[in-house]
Specification:
- This protein is mainly α and 474 residues long.
- The chain has two domains: 3-19 and 42-222, Growth Hormone, Chain: A (Up-down Bundle), CATH 1.20.1250; 234-473, Growth Hormone, Chain: A (Up-down Bundle).
- It is 72% helix and 1% strand.
- The chain has 18 helices and two strands.
- It has helices at residues 3-13, 46-50, 53-74, 76-82, 87-119, 123-144, 147-173, 178-185, 188-211, 234-253, 262-273, 277-291, 295-304, 320-343, 351-379, 384-409, 414-432, 446-473, and strands spanning 312-313, 316-317.
- Strand 1 (312-313) and strand 2 (316-317) form a beta hairpin.
- The chain is globular.
Length: 474
């Protein structure tokens, strides 16, 4: 049903040539690459659009966003039943999904227009925000079983894709063949649904139900819980989970080094708040105090995350994720309040209050670092020096990583960098914190694999060093 119309469209448009014109639309600057930026008024047909990187980037984004949204709504009844929601509650959630879809599809276009014309924010930025929102929504369902809140977030973010994607399509490829192009991109919807609904959610549920006599109850039914400590596959998968835990910790560490970039955004802080240099240095000292006051994080880890801990949360055994979550919240609050102050959204705070904002942001980093380092040592007791060096090494690299991410994606001034510091480490931690767990297993090849991770850190460092030097030379 999909391929014949696609073939006809490609054949009909094969010989069409777009008229030349002038400059690329600034609304799409964050998405269009320099080599293929379409001039204003440039009209691409379907075949020409499919020959660009932007088409496939947008298509892949829709596979992930639309597919995961459909996977949720297609399985919401079964998810609700496994979590002991009543039929009335499930039917209400299905009905509310449609209402939320209307509201956000209507409002998503309006909001993107407002920020585009008022602040110059490109629509692809909202694609990123809404897909991060979908990640959070799925994490809420998977970690707490709160289907009400999780489905609200997923539904809102899913609906927004349908107002953003056609508009972005017209801005990149023009309006002449917009209907053909955006409907071709819309085929990502069933493709993503098949991959995520059938191959992921369906298979996980079937395996869980088969192990329990044909039905499944509880949070594990639709989550990646085949690796649970109570699963019969636990011993087989423990080694893989230990390495997955290590990789998750490394990724969190890669966005935890905001403290090393204070000098990048301090001019904005100084100018907006009217500080002299000694006052700015006072704020900086509170950053140092917060970053080196990790006693609370250590006590919390011992209480809720050590292997001997018996503390549970909503029926789930405590773990490093609790420490990581508290740290991420502190980082978000500290930097977000600082950003509100710098942009003038809130009244200029007194210096002691700004010092508290900085202390809070820096103190959160100690929670992230403690959870990652201690968990890594528990997982690799025979090579603790190596694994601590790896974790601390990536933390040291994270300052350069954060700046490169910012300069590549945004590069609009240090004020927006503060906003990025409030969001990126927070969302990155939420995404990977459930994978950071202690596993008391040993392998013969641990040292060799850890040496491989060490080599990766050296390669990343060399790459960043080369990129920075080249940027300065150009």
């Amino acid at each position: 049903m999909v391929l014949p119309p696609l073939q006809i469209a490609i054949t009909a448009q094969r010989n069409e040539q777009p008229p030349p014109s002038s400059d690329p639309s600034p609304a799409m600057a964050p998405l269009i690459t320099a080599q293929e930026a379409a001039p204003a008024g440039f009209e691409m047909n379907l075949l020409q659009a499919m020959c660009t990187v932007n088409f496939w980037l947008l298509f892949l984004a829709m596979v992930c966003a639309l597919g995961s949204g459909l996977a949720t709504i297609n399985n919401i009844t079964q998810i609700g039943e496994s979590l002991d929601y009543s039929t009335v509650e499930i039917n209400a959630m299905i009905s509310l999904w449609s209402i939320r879809n209307f509201l956000i599809r209507f409002g998503g276009g309006f909001v993107s227009d407002f920020y585009l014309h008022r602040y110059g924010w490109g629509r692809p930025l909202f694609i990123s925000f809404t897909q991060l929102g979908m990640i959070i929504g799925h994490l809420i369902i998977g970690s707490s079983g709160n289907l009400y809140l999780g489905s609200v977030i997923v539904g809102v973010c899913y609906g927004s894709q349908w107002s953003l994607m056609p508009t972005i399509t017209s801005e990149i490829f023009g309006v002449k063949h917009m209907g053909t192009i955006f409907n071709t991109i819309a085929t990502a919807n069933p493709i993503g649904s098949y991959i995520l609904s059938v191959q992921v959610i369906g298979n996980i549920y079937d395996k869980q139900a088969e192990a329990r006599g044909g039905s499944c109850r509880g949070i594990r039914c639709f989550m990646l819980s085949l690796f649970s400590p109570h699963s019969p596959l636990d011993r087989k998968m423990a080694v893989k989970n230990k390495w997955m835990s290590t990789v998750a910790s490394i990724w969190i560490q890669c966005t935890s080094g905001s403290l090393y970039t204070f000098s990048f955004y301090s001019p904005a802080l100084k100018a907006s708040q009217g500080y002299d240099q000694s006052t700015l240095d006072t704020v900086s000292v509170f950053k140092d105090f917060g970053a080196n006051s990790g006693v609370l994080s250590g006590l919390l880890y011992t209480a809720v995350a050590s292997p001997s801990s018996s503390i549970t949360f909503r029926g789930r055994r405590g773990g490093p994720w609790i420490v990581l979550l508290i740290g991420a919240i502190q980082c978000f609050l500290g930097y977000f309040l600082m950003w509100l102050s710098v942009t003038g959204t809130i009244n200029r705070p007194p210096v002691p209050v700004m010092c508290v904002f900085m202390l809070l942001a820096a103190h959160g980093v100690t929670f992230l670092n403690t959870a990652n380092v201690v968990t890594a040592v528990i997982n690799f007791p025979n090579h603790s020096g190596t694994i601590v060096g790896i974790m601390k090494g990536f933390l040291g690299l994270s300052g350069a990583i954060l700046l490169q991410v910012y300069q590549t994606v945004f590069n609009t001034g240090p004020t927006h960098y503060i906003l990025m510091l409030s969001l990126l480490p927070f969302l990155n931690t939420l995404l990977f914190m459930s994978s950071v767990r202690p596993y008391e297993t040993n392998e013969v090849d641990e040292k060799r694999n850890l040496n491989g991770l060490s080599l990766c850190s050296i390669i990343v460092a060399a790459y960043l060093f080369t990129i920075i030097i080249l940027e300065q030379a150009v």
